[in-house]
Amino acid sequence: MLLEIITIGDELLLGYTVDTNAAHLARELASIGVSIVRRATVSDDANDIASAVREALDRTGAVITTGGLGPTSDDRTRPVIAELFGRDLVPDEERWDALRALWKERGRGEIPETNRTQIMIPRGATVLTNRHGTAPGIWLEDELGRWCAMLPGVPREMRGVLADELFPRLTARLDGQQRVVVRSRTLRTTGVAESKLAELLGPLANGIDGLALAYLPGQEGVDLRLTARDLAPDAADAALTGGIAALREMAARYAYAENQTDLASVVLNECDARGLTIAVAESCTGGLLGARLTAIPGSSSVVIGGVIAYSNGVKKGLLGVTTESLERHGAVSQEAASEMATGVRRRLGVDIGVSITGVAGPGGGTPDKPVGLVWMAVDVRGDVRTHGSRFVGDRAEIRFRATQAALDLVRRMVAG
Amino acid sequence: MLLEIITIGDELLLGYTVDTNAAHLARELASIGVSIVRRATVSDDANDIASAVREALDRTGAVITTGGLGPTSDDRTRPVIAELFGRDLVPDEERWDALRALWKERGRGEIPETNRTQIMIPRGATVLTNRHGTAPGIWLEDELGRWCAMLPGVPREMRGVLADELFPRLTARLDGQQRVVVRSRTLRTTGVAESKLAELLGPLANGIDGLALAYLPGQEGVDLRLTARDLAPDAADAALTGGIAALREMAARYAYAENQTDLASVVLNECDARGLTIAVAESCTGGLLGARLTAIPGSSSVVIGGVIAYSNGVKKGLLGVTTESLERHGAVSQEAASEMATGVRRRLGVDIGVSITGVAGPGGGTPDKPVGLVWMAVDVRGDVRTHGSRFVGDRAEIRFRATQAALDLVRRMVAG
Questions:
Q1: Chain A residues 332-351 with CB within 8 Å of chain B
Q2: d(Cα B375, Cα B283) in Å, to the nearest integer?
């Protein structure tokens, strides 16, 4: 099945809103065997919508639109596409009663008459119920089997209608057909450069058994994305499962999770399973490591707290970093990092102390201690390991990469 | 001037990459008076590229493409568009020498011959120099004045070539023409609901003197975006300056900055100007407030540090929160927040202590203390103010909104 996506709206076309709907739709549809052949964005203008939809229907006979279904005069998707299909708009009075009840329920009082535009449905169309908002989706099909599905533009609503209504409908259409899909799975690695990783992967470095392998370097490390194309759904899943297992073996200790999982979540699970508690001591990251750990629901069973030791006074006063270390080696040093980790472990009475101290920039660098230099330390019940790195990027990147490296040091020490 | 944008690449079409180039291009171009009438995304396939570009040239005679300029066999933009314009590709040997030198300079050794594809330029085309990567942009124009500008797909490179090469070229073309632009400015507000803000704005609530007003509610508050359309550049800027000043007066103490400026940066400036130092005491936000403050370069002149008091033990041990308060009122209470703020101020010897304690969810809520309930306190040299709020959203939103409200409390106390 081939189709085109048309996203509608002045805000999108003018670039005030980045179009995340199109990417979400494309990924989800490809995973069930629908190929997107083109994507377009047009303004709210009726002529622009009409010509884009007409051209797309001529090419593929299948179109999904997003946006322009609201109650205001800017929202022209419904009447324009109804006209393209030669249908008039008829009010759906049941829907009006439901909408009126919803407004009252939400304490908004009597619904304005202008909202009646939202219940005007092209004759013969099927309503795609929107459980997350007031603008319903619409499915319109002609006698030749050409169809257009109109989805709302608000991403949360679009995703809801897609999952609840459109996905089942498309899957049913594809059922029985010899369908092939595009599906992906990602193995996350950190602490290893792309070129080194390719070496480690050896014979798998360029893909596995017809699965394409993409290296996606980012602040969290290098993600390895395997993509199965043009396989039947079951075959794709089996190939991906085997492929990920093979990659995991080769990437060994650098692999920490799959898909979107955050390293902080992996670390918390490892600690929780062993009954270990953790505290952080942060200088240049100023709380970012603590924020990442506590972003995970349930983190309070592991994370006790921490000290943001931005000034040397706090490093000494609350963490017991020695004046001697600071004077001889400086605040950004292996020694200071080590004393910070041990200091926070003892002070907060936890099993694991983690510290970060570095030069995040853009100012403050010296020939000896350039911007990007970061020292980290982890103290697990008295067993201390330190790690120094020179990170590239701007201030935000250096800080984030430092938290990632510190978390990885914890992971390796805890998981062994 | 009307034009169309075509972004090229399988990754974009499959939704693995969200297309941020298109939005950036549209905003920038609109600001100098170029109207984007349509945007499309196609695969790396030569036929798909050719038909999309041909159709766009037929409609508007002006096209900007991104992507497909690299050295691999997937990169077909250059030959396909050269053929559309009836041009052959000729090698640019000077460019080859420069590229070869660059590779050596970067320690990559001898450049592979495959990279020669990147110096193949359509006959008669103008090279748009890329200072941030190896794939140059290309400007191609026919005798009828129809043109296509090819830009690289990597966002940083695309932005560079746009700013350095394409922007000046387009501005020169528009010079002397009666041009009208689309430009925007945004006033940021926080701590006030959209409906209340509309009331405050009174007669300006629906726009000012032909400037459109958009309410953009988000985690940071409600941004007010004023947009001037179809005005000459100078008139647009003058109208926006006047409009922002008028909005600022009506929004009064809720307005804290313009455009992208973060509230943390505003707070740091206010403190710095008065020589005030600051420390944080965070429970449910776990370091996020500290992370936001220290994300700003130069924050070390104001931020001394803080305590992440995730557990009650840390609240008592490091911050001096009393057992009585915790037992009688609980960790999420006005009393605990107040003691945390004063505790961290004294402990770290600073002018301002800021605290946050709340129920971030998804678990941990009770009928008395539901998910989203957050208490904040600010102690400025002994003058303590507290603020309780019930935030909506998921864990991440509740935490972020809490840091925003705490920062705003500091801003109001410090700025008076």
A1: 347-349
A2: 10
Closest CA to A69 of A157, A1, A141, A147: A157
Query: φ, ψ for residue B57 (rounded to 5)?
Result: -65, -40
- Cα end-to-end span (Å), chain B: 49
pLDDT at B107 over 80: no
What is the distance between the alpha carbons of residues A413 and A411, in angstroms, rounded to a whole number?
Answer: 6
Would you tell me which residues 177-196 of chain B have a C-beta closer than 8 angstroms to some C-beta of chain A?
A: 182, 184
How far is it, in rounded angstroms, from Cα B291 to Cα B304?
Answer: 12
Using a 10 angstrom Cβ sphere, with 0-12 exposed, 13-18 middle and 19 or more buried, the burial of residue A161 is buried
CB contact under 8 A, B18 and A16: no
Tens of pLDDT, residues B343-375:
999 999 999 999 999 999 999 999 999 999 999
Q: Say how far apart CA A124 and CA B105 lie, in whole Å.
A: 67
Residue pairs between chains A and B whose CB atoms are closer than 8 Å: 230
Task: Reply yes or no on whether the pLDDT at B176 is more than 90.
Answer: no
Looking at the predicted structure, is the pLDDT value of residue B298 above 80?
A: yes
Please report residues of B whose CB lies closer than 8 A to that of A19: 18-19, 22-23
Helix or strand (DSSP H, E) at B356: strand B352-358
- Spans of chain A, pLDDT less than 70: none
Asked whether residue B416 carries a pLDDT value surpassing 80, the answer given is: no
The predicted pLDDT at position B103 comes to 80
Q: Is B50 on the interface with A (CB under 8 A)?
A: no
Distance from CA of A91 to the nearest CA of B (A): 30
Cα–Cα distances in angstroms (integers) from residue A151 to residues A135, A163, A172, in the given order:
9, 11, 19
Q: How far is A90 from chain B (nearest CA, A)?
A: 31
Partner-chain contact A41 B39, CB within 8 Å: yes
